[in-house]
Amino acid sequence: MSSEPHRHEVVIIGAGVSGIYQIKRLVDLDIDAVVLEGDDDLGGTWYRNRYPGARFDSESYTYGYSWSQEVLDEWDWKERFSGQPENLHYLNFVADKFDLRRHMRFNARVTSMTWDDDEREWTVELEDGDVYVSRFVIPSLGPLSMPTLPRYPGMDEFAGPSFHTYHWPKEPLDLTDKRVGVIGTGATGIQVIGELADKVGELKVFQRRPNWSSPLNNSEISAEEMAEIRGRYDEIFANCAESPGGFEHVPDWRGFWNLTEEERHAHYDFLYTQPGFAILVANFAEIFFDQAANDEISEYIANRIRERVNDPVIAEKLIPLDHGFGMQRLPLETNYFEAYNRDNVNLVDLSEAPIERITATGIKTAAAHHELDVIVYATGFDAITGGYDRIDIHGVDGRRLGEVWKDSPRTYIGVLAHGFPNLFMIAGPQSVSGSTNFPRAIETGVDWVTDLLVQARADGRTRIEATAEAEQEWVDEVVRAHERMMFRRSKGWFTGYNSNVAGHQEGKIRYQAYFGGAPRYNQRVTELAANGYPGITVA
Ligand code: NAP
Questions:
Q1: Are residues 190 and 215 in contact, defined by beta-carbon separation less than 8 angstroms?
Q2: Cα dist. 468→135, 399, 410, 421, 505 in Å?
């Protein structure tokens, strides 16, 4: 801790996918900036999520950065959906290649930020007492960086290892012959369960609600394939920019009702064998808007589950009844359903007998006590706004961001918030990041923020703030986009639901992400810049 504040023109918070690119842009422009990272190394999501099975579910070559020809030339992806160790290696490769670490400070957890309207600067305080003062702050916090745990009695009493998947230990953990309990069947739980099933003594899956899931269809990328991908990078990124989800997959616009049921099923059969999110985003667009279309694809996937799970009673328990296919963020799986055909894997249905408490030796439900050696909480995140809530952010006249966003966040294009000048959020609430292939939208955000900053500096301006009217218009647009989607009725983090966070309960939608699609969003922000940033006061 030093007594004098550190001064930089820009403070970036977070050294994950966003922070790494943001610092690269600023370093190239010779702008004095520092990255403050709470962890002891860079990588964000890919530094933290070390659980077995953690991997991209975007095609690796659509997830990687597009902005460096050298990186594109030099980095070979080994798998279509690359695993956490390689992903972390990639981010380190990029940071080291451009010598970015020297602009990063680790173990620098930001606890509060206060805006001084006279000086036009932010005071940023760290957990260890250190203080940074900067003209601009760019939170690059990650939409899924605040893990949430249940609040069961006795959680501290469990004698064995127990942790959230986000905090999976860095040290090797031998689970051979161990009795492992996994709570949660979201994208994380589904990855970890598929991976652990044949590696542990016994696996108990504590499921509150089943989730739709379809095959990831991962495969290795050969040298020849990688050469072909490399030759197509321009086309790949152009395709991603034009697709609503930011992927290479594009919706099928033939028209659900223009085809026969047989033709539609042939398309589902094809998509089920395709990699990644094809089954969702290369499907008929109607599945997101038309209940009958969604019912049909849901029944198709349900039948696939019935085919894959031997015990019909278990199969039915794995089929969601409270929401249709694609109505919550779709987890992609590898051997997930087959795991339940193994003798050492058991499904514990919490909808029949909820968890009552954690004991020293396991989990007690209303029906039984399950003896366990390890408990894994795959219980999700305080998504999108959680990273902001943990920092006490005070804007103009001391107004608190957490208070303003208590019911639902309010932003202008997911980047700016009225009353919080010179704060530029990358992948912020109500941007398109949360609803699409994250890194594609992250690059859009970083480039847009950097251009705005460069222009303001060139004009000698030092205060940038969204107007209240522009913010309201954007919030209205975000709400309209939500209302077009059937998933607004389901319980998932897309709509801000998290049973473990006060105020984020069912029936109370938080408008956290923009669902108008990447092309519309990109067009909107491009036009804003081209038209001199209407809705933003630059003074
Ligand atoms: P999640 O989708 O929110 O799932 C959390 C799970 O925990 C749900 O099954 C939930 O049940 C259960 N749960 C929560 N609290 C519980 C409690 N108190 N008792 C019992 N069960 C409880 O979280 P996630 O699986 O971590 O995924 C979050 C997001 O991370 C994903 O949607 C995705 O965007 C991202 N992710 C990406 C990848 C990738 O491949 N790139 C992998 C993993 C995650 P309910 O459904 O009943 O609430």
A1: no
A2: 21, 14, 10, 12, 28
Domains of the chain are 6-146+382-538 (3.50.50.60), 214-377 (no CATH)
Q: Is 385 in the pocket of ligand 1 (CB under 6 A)?
A: no
Nearest CA to ligand 1 atom 28: 380
* 183 CA distance to ligand 1 middle (Å): 9
What's the CA gap between 287 and 278, in Å, rounded?
13
Summarised one tens digit per residue, pLDDT across range 211-245 is 999 999 999 999 999 999 999 999 999 999 999 88
38: DSSP letter: S
Note the pLDDT of residue 3.
74
* Residue 256 CB contacts under 8 Å (≥ 6 apart), including other chains: 264, 284, 285, 286, 287, 290, 293
- Closest ligand 1 atom to 184 CA: 7
407 near 399, Cβ under 8 Å?
no
Distance 434 CA to ligand 1 centre (A): 15
Whether the CB of 379 sits within 6 Å of ligand 1: yes
